[in-house]
Amino acid sequence: MGNRMGTKFEPAKKILKLNSDQEANALFGTLDENLRFAEEQFGIKISAANHRLIITGDKKQVDLALEFFQEKLSEIHGGESEESKKLKPVQPVKQQHSEAGTSLDNIQFHHKGKLIRPKSQHQFDYVESIIKNDVVISIGPAGTGKTYLAVAQAVDFLKKRKVGKLILTRPAVEAGENLGFLPGDLYAKINPYLRPLYDALYDMMEHEDVAMYLERGIIEVAPLAYMRGRTLNDAFIILDEGQNTTHDQMKMFLTRLGVGSKLVITGDITQIDLPGGKKSGLVEIQKILKNIKGIDITYLTESDVVRHTLVKDIIRAYDRYVP
Q1: Could you report the per-residue pLDDT of 81-123, keeping only the tens digit for each?
Q2: What is the rounded CA–CA span in Å between residue 66 and residue 17?
Q3: What span, in angstroms and rounded, lies between the C-alpha atoms of 55 and 38?
Q4: How deeply is 162 buried, as exposed, middle or buried, from its count of CB atoms within 10 A (0-12, 13-18, 19+)?
Q5: Average pLDDT, the chain
Q6: Euclidean distance between CA atoms 22 and 314, whole angstroms
Q7: 33-42 and 59-76 helices cross at what angle (nearest 10)?
Q8: Structure pTM?
Q9: What value, to the nearest 5°, has the Cα angle with vertex 220 and ends 219 and 224?
């Protein structure tokens, strides 16, 4: 990977110390295949000597490569200190496959100089499902990467011209706040609900590129109500916060799917904000759509949380709490 034009190159060197030849062999892979993979993917140089891995190159890329190898070391040791002496060889990165046979090479994205990829088996299965199916429903708690990975895949499809348009939508449901008391016009009132979708886009694309695509209508970020009456062809469509759709809204959204399009619905059925005890459309479609070919329902759990480590503990605490 090269640097963007105008981006300042900051040379850096990081050293990762290894404990033994066995650990080094498990980390490097067959014929040092993992080292070669990292050099190619991160655009850095790697040398190894005396149980030390020396990584040199641009500072940002070096930091990413170091994080990559630290994650691999965690896999080798099983992530548990009790098992630290039982080394588990890591399968060479380019040969990692799921049961369905999709290579990890096809499930990783490079945006703004950083590698975005699934970090758990459930996340891997989720992104693989997006590649293989036209409609994917992902259900799981906050922080499991449901929306982030979907947006990453959508941006990747857009850049590779597999689709002509990217549409991101959410229901504008009040989560304990009164929409009517927010200041500004309708756009100003609704925009806070759409902010997380913009944040994901800006994390993967340059701001000026997002602005250009928005202006040209290639990327659209809009409330769910704006989808009514449309047929969405040649598009990658993401419905976020799907748990806050009603039965009728979910049916309306699903039937917008046009030719050459993919549709991803994400949500957390433990955080339903619908007023008046209305049934969630996301809860219902688990039964309604479960046996339709081309539609897949995936589930993520607290073990897939990729935010602050405390988020897992918070989710578990709420699951255990009985008022």
Answers
A1: 343 334 444 444 443 444 444 444 445 555 555 567 787 788 8
A2: 11
A3: 10
A4: middle
A5: 79
A6: 37
A7: 150
A8: 0.65
A9: 150
